[in-house]
C-alpha cells in the first residue's frame, strides 16, 4: 500500500540505548523516503516538550497522527507507515492502543478529535472485535457519559440497535443510556421489545431507571 511521506518526532534521553536503536531505524526510513522530516529532541534539554506531549518515558515517537512509547522493530514501523493513509488506519491504531492498555491515550485522542468516535463505532459494529477491545470501547463511552460527544452519535447508535448480533444490540442499549438524551428513548423502547431476552431485560431496566 502506498502512502505519503510523513513527519516524525522522536523524543530521546542521554544514554538511552533503545532511543539510539529507534533513531537508527528512523534514519533508514528517512533515507528510503518513507519519512519526509525527522525531528529528534532530547527531553533532558527540553523537558517542556515532554510536558507538552505528556511523555513519561522514552523513546517516544509521534508518526503522523500515531504516537508510540518504547522500543519498536523496523517491520512494525514500516507497517504503521502503511496505515497513515489507510481507510482503516485509525481504527487499527485504536485497536492497538486498547490491546496494549493505553486507554487514557484513546480517551485523550477522542477528546481532541471527536471524529474518532466513528472509529469506535466501527469497533462496536464489528462482530470480530475481541473482548479486551470491547471493554476498552465501553470504558471510553463511560468516560464521556452525558457529554455532547455522545449525544451527537445517538442516531448512529440507533442504527446499530438494529444489528443482527444480540450481543452488539445489548452493548448499544448500554451506550444509549450513557447519552442522557431523549432522542435515545425510542431506540431503547425498540430494544425493550427485542427478540433476545437479555437485550429486552437490559433495555427495560434502563427505561425503568429513566422512568419511561
Topology readout:
Layout: E1 6-12, H1 17-31, E2 35-42, H2 47-52, E3 60-63, E4 66-69, H3 74-83, H4 89-99, H5 103-112, H6 117-125, H7 131-143, H8 148-151, H9 154-160, H10 166-178, H11 185-191, H12 197-209
Parallel strand pairs: 1-2
Antiparallel strand pairs: 1-3, 3-4
Helix pairs in contact: 4-6, 9-10, 10-11, 10-12, 11-12
Notable characteristics:
212 residues; alpha+beta; Glutaredoxin; 4-stranded mixed β-sheet
Plain-language structure description:
The chain is α+β, with helices and mostly antiparallel strands and 212 residues long. It has a domain at 1-86: Glutaredoxin. 56% of the residues lie in helices and 11% in strands. The chain contains 12 helices and 4 strands, in the order βαβαββαααααααααα. A 4-stranded mixed β-sheet has the order 2-1-3-4. Strand 1 (6-12), helix 1 and strand 2 form a beta-alpha-beta unit. Helix 10 runs antiparallel to helix 11 (185-191) and helix 10 (166-178) runs parallel beside helix 12 (197-209). The longest helix is centred in the N-terminal third of the chain and has 15 residues, at 17-31. The radius of gyration is 21 Å and the shape is elongated. The N and C termini lie far apart (51 Å).
In total, the number of strands is 4
What's the name of the CATH homologous superfamily of the domain at 1-86? Glutaredoxin
Rg is: 21 Å
Structural class of the helix and strand makeup?
Answer: alpha+beta
Under the CATH scheme, which class of the domain at 1-86?
Answer: Alpha Beta
Proportion of strand residues: 5-15%
Helical percentage: 55-70%
Number of helices: 12
Q: Largest sheet at a glance?
A: 4 strands, mixed
What's the SSE pattern? EHEHEEHHHHHHHHHH
Please state the overall shape, judged from the principal axes of the Cα atoms.
elongated
How would you state the average pLDDT, rounded? Answer: 95
CATH architectural grouping of the domain at 1-86: 3-Layer(aba) Sandwich
Strand order of the largest sheet: 2-1-3-4
Low-confidence stretches: none
* Distance N to C terminus: 51 Å
Q: What is the CATH T-level topology of the domain at 1-86?
A: Glutaredoxin
Amino acid at each position: 500500500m502506498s502512502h505519503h511521506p510523513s513527519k516524525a518526532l522522536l523524543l530521546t534521553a542521554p544514554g538511552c540505548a533503545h532511543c539510539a536503536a529507534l533513531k537508527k531505524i528512523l534514519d533508514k526510513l528517512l533515507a528510503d523516503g518513507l519519512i519526509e522530516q525527522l525531528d529528534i529532541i532530547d527531553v533532558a534539554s527540553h523537558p517542556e516538550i515532554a510536558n507538552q506531549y505528556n511523555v513519561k518515558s522514552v523513546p517516544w515517537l509521534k508518526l503522523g497522527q500515531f504516537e508510540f512509547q518504547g522500543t519498536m522493530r523496523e517491520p512494525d514501523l514500516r507497517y504503521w507507515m502503511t496505515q497513515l493513509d489507510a481507510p482503516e488506519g485509525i481504527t487499527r491504531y485504536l485497536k492497538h492502543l486498547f490491546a496494549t492498555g493505553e486507554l487514557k491515550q484513546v480517551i485523550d485522542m477522542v477528546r481532541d478529535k471527536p471524529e474518532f468516535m466513528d472509529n469506535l463505532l466501527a469497533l462496536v459494529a464489528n462482530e470480530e472485535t475481541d473482548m479486551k477491545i470491547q471493554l476498552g470501547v465501553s470504558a471510553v463511552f463511560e468516560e464521556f457519559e452525558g457529554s455532547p460527544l455522545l449525544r451527537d452519535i445517538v442516531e448512529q447508535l440507533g442504527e446499530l440497535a438494529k444489528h443482527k448480533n444480540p450481543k452488539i444490540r445489548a452493548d448499544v442499549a448500554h451506550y444509549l443510556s450513557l447519552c442522557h438524551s431523549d432522542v435515545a428513548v425510542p431506540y431503547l423502547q425498540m430494544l425493550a421489545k427485542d427478540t433476545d431476552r437479555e437485550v429486552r431485560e437490559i433495555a427495560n431496566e434502563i427505561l425503568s431507571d429513566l422512568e419511561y
